[in-house]
Amino acid sequence: MSPSRREAFLFWLKLGFISFGGPAGQIAIMHREIVERRRWLAEQPFMNALNFCMLLPGPEALQLAIYLGWRFHGALGGVVAGLCFIVPAIVLLLGLSFAYAIYGQMPAIAALLFGLKATVVALIVHALIRVARRALSAPVHWLIAPVAFAIMAWHLAPFPVLLMVAALLGGLMRRDTAPPASAVTKNFSWRVLLAGVLLWALPAAIVLATTGPGSIHSQVYGFFTTAALVTFGGAYAVLAFVVQQAVEVYGWLTPADTVAGLALAETTPGPLIIVLQFVGFMAGWNVPGAAGTAVTATATALLATWATFLPSFVLILVGAPYVERLTANPRLAGALSGITAAVVGVIANLAVVFAGAVIFPAGFGAPHWPALALAIAALILLQWTRVDVLWVIAGGALAGFLVVFLA
Q1: Given 232, 257, 362, 363, which residue has the most CB atoms within 10 angstroms?
Q2: Where are the domains of the chain?
Q3: pTM value?
Q4: Under DSSP, is residue 215 helix (H, G, I), strand (E, B) or coil?
Q5: How far apart are CA 209 and CA 228, in angstroms?
């Protein structure tokens, strides 16, 4: 039995405030509440929707919420579900970003961030292990992953090209044919697609008209639009691309800043990809222009957020009627497997970059022993115990504080 609009709204609003733990935890909450406890949806339609979201760029947990909202109450229901899922995180991380930028160098705050950064390295390694176990299931995947690592480490090809080649290889390796797809009963939603294009184009036009094509606002909006379209493999994968560009090409922030941003994003509910808002914020903070630091940083943070999340709403609301047909296509499943294998190499590169910034700041031959010890301890807790990730993060922050002030 589908929920009433009021029941659905209250559930999505609650989810927006309790959805800690990354996509796996968020999807588990939705499954438990919607399928098992409330029985608003059967198991198979839920899994079909999840598989569909995995085929798309963007945060799969957010997209699943949008799809379920659409299924219950149409396009408006999807928009409400998605906004409830992300708005609490947007507001909270914006406040944390200001706190980091203003107070991040204070000894007490820096000590907490030291522990959080070491814990983030452990979180990335833990994610790498989990993804590798699932993704490296065929010989071609064992080829794709190290090649992807080398391409990212030595900048041998653009990130979108890497994903396209991995998808092509994965798709070509699937020789089985798809079963007959069920007929699609709804027409393609041109109105939703047009609305999405206009919602993207309007901020772009305003930014270009008021700040010019070379401004930090235009650069941020253009860059994060590109990033949103290649966000296969989750936040860690796209963050590797974002770090490479934002740090090395644009010079908006430092590797240490990006580690801190990921640590802050880990402490907020909602999709982990919200870390891109932090990157956009720091871009405006460090390149303020005539408008002033606070105004520019807020504007670039919101532009990054809009560019990051808008495609998820459009892709789901346009593609929702075609879930069964798309999830039954083996070529698409093969392409996704190739991308996921590439993501293993991409996340491995991110782990090396962040470990270099946190654990080996003086070079890989001279580790910072307290940071290394904290990272190893956090990894052990994540890998071999059932301690909730939020407690690991909180413990890492506290341990960092104690290490710095007792040293």
Answers
A1: 232
A2: 107-407
A3: 0.88
A4: coil
A5: 23
